[in-house]
Amino acid sequence: MTKKIWLDENTSVPVRTKLHLDSSDKKIHIENTQDVSPIVEENRKLANDNLYKVKGFEDAKMYKVASIPMIVVQQLAKKGIMTAGGRILDRVAFRKWLNDPDNKHFKIYKGTV
Length: 113
What we know:
three-stranded antiparallel β-sheet, 2 domains, alpha+beta
């Protein structure tokens, strides 16, 4: 039998953690979850309106390329591409990840990074 317990009662945190206590295997499984739909929807709106240019820095060619949910940053940190705080460690791998069609929902800039 598996018992599920939320570790964080506060639903306003972006990443929530659930423990799965498996009494038959005597194991504990940890599941992190995040509702990424608001971020994906906002990215879609910004991309459709070509709002990737950072206001006040248009001349400097500064663009907001993507908005990535914390749960995805955690996954990229496990791969060594980013730190858990969001700093890019491997720029080549990060660009490859951003340009992958599977990750297009996180991009705002429609071009190749």
